[in-house]
Specification:
Blueprint lengths: L3 H14 L12 H7 L4 H13 L3 E4 L3 E4 L6 E4 L2 H8 L4 H4 L4 H6 L6 E11 L2 H7 L6 E11 L8 E7 H4 L16 H7 L5 E11 L3 H7 L7 E10 L4 E10 L3 E4 L8
Parallel strand pairs: 3-10
Antiparallel strand pairs: 1-2, 4-5, 5-6, 6-9, 7-8, 8-9
Helix pairs in contact: 1-3, 2-3
Length: about 260
């Protein structure tokens, strides 16, 4: 049997979904809501805490509770990698029209704010093992933040690693000022003669760190998905490793697996 605060939360949930309480609207004070629903203040706070954990409301300390504005959904389909490979060799004009984030969100280039930073780092034991190189080998670490225009938080937190020596033949690949790169990483690798054969993605769910809560604008008990992407070229060599932190409240993962016919 549902508890009192759960029943109150469900009534508020229905009002939000019906549009009676609109996105961005400030809710009545907790004392007023408690009076409206004939509940104690602690019970009402439990109901609001439940909605907060579901991402339906935001709590601004000292101001009040607000109906949360829906955030743009990013749908990551595993077929996106073939889509990106198909674009790697087309003209720059065609590659400029859209990128991976636009593919995932349905937004256009003008809808997005893109930020990239590059720096050289030594390979730690984890990355050295992934790339099969000695510990301390120079890597290029690329950090990406892409957000919708008008939003305060990015769709994800992405850190990509490349072996510096592998891409040094094209100096443009070492310059963050060339970002956003038309055609993404697969086109970048193509410019130095690398073709990807397959990509392995491992995904785990976990609670966010304090920094991730702040950077991704997470509320309540929303978890994150940690994705480790490993790109292997046609010779069997690992050429890119990327760690992507995906917010659970605005990411949908879609896997389509072709099956061999009998």
């Amino acid at each position: 049997m549902a508890k009192r605060y759960e029943r109150i939360a469900e009534q508020l949930r229905q009002r939000i979904r019906a549009g009676e309480l609109e996105a961005g609207q400030r809710l009545p004070a907790e004392t007023a809501l408690a009076q409206e629903y004939k509940s104690s203040l602690p019970t009402m706070r439990d109901a609001l805490a439940l909605l907060l954990s579901e991402g339906l409301i935001d709590k601004k300390h000292g101001i009040g509770n607000f109906v949360r504005k829906p955030r743009q959904l990013a749908r990551r389909d595993n077929r996106r990698h073939q889509w990106e490979k198909n674009r790697a060799r087309v003209s720059e004009a065609e590659r400029l029209t859209t990128g991976a984030t636009e593919h995932d969100t349905g937004l256009t280039v003008s809808d997005l704010v893109f930020e990239a930073t590059y720096r050289e780092v030594p390979a730690d034991e984890d990355l050295a093992e992934q790339f099969d190189v000695p510990v301390g080998t120079t890597l290029l670490k690329r950090t990406y933040r892409t957000s919708g225009r008008g939003e305060d938080t990015p769709f994800n937190l992405a850190r990509s690693y490349l072996v510096h020596e592998t891409i040094a033949g094209n100096p443009d690949l070492l310059d963050a000022g060339k970002e956003p790169w038309p055609g993404g990483t697969q086109n970048q690798l193509y410019t130095v003669g690398i073709e990807l054969d397959h990509i392995v993605e491992r995904i785990t769910a976990r609670p966010p760190t304090v920094e991730e809560i702040e950077e991704l604008g997470l509320q309540g008990g929303i978890s994150v998905m940690a994705l480790r992407k490993t790109c292997i070229d046609t010779s069997g060599r690992v050429v890119e490793v990327a760690d992507v932190t995906l917010p659970g409240d605005r990411t949908e993962l879609v896997f389509t697996t072709p099956l061999e016919r009998w």
